[in-house]
Amino acid sequence: MSKLLQVAFKELGQTEIPGTDHNPRIVTYAEQSNFPGIKDDETPWCSIFVNFCCDELNYERSGKANARSWLQVGEEPTAAKPGDIVIFWRESIHSWKGHVGFYLGHSVDRKKVFCIGGNQGNAVSVAAYDASKVLGYRRVGAETQLEIPDPYLRKGDKGENVIKLQNLLNKLGYNCGDADGDFGNKTIKALKLLQANNQLTVDGIYGNDSKTIIESLLQS
Prior knowledge:
The protein has 220 residues and is of the alpha+beta class. It has helices at residues 3-10, 24-32, 46-56, 160-171, 185-197, 208-219; strands at 85-89, 98-106, 112-117, 125-130, 134-138.
């Protein structure tokens, strides 16, 4: 069984709580995957669950709550295998709506696709979906190589070293959004929060002190 399926099956049966209460485990999926604004188990969470499972293994994530965002992550396999990510359209193939989960297999007649995922019947469950609504399959698995860039980096900088810094900030729980290589306001805000939490000068500039703290946090 793939590592992603192992993670997903450990969560099997986690179910939304009707009413004003919320399943804390489902809320954790959002918190761990850097969706700090989501504090309930009612916001559509299929993509959040896939982000959570990938985060558990330090695999590439979409970083977004919409299912179709996964069409841009990883690689398209030549043939789907259990553990690949499968993306479906909902309502209309041309809309933004969709569903995402982990592929388990096809029915004998190839008309249904079985997958395990979140928000399937308001729970982490195994369900069958119409195979004609598959938008695509994606394969992730190569662990993100977390490299610590050399200082200095600051607002306006772009490139591979900025991507490295953004990946580190996201991994440490300082959400700076997508690792797009652009040192903008989100990256500054995340870096300032890290600096403030570790008694550094809060200037939003990645220097030697910030590098030292990041090295220490990664080893803890």
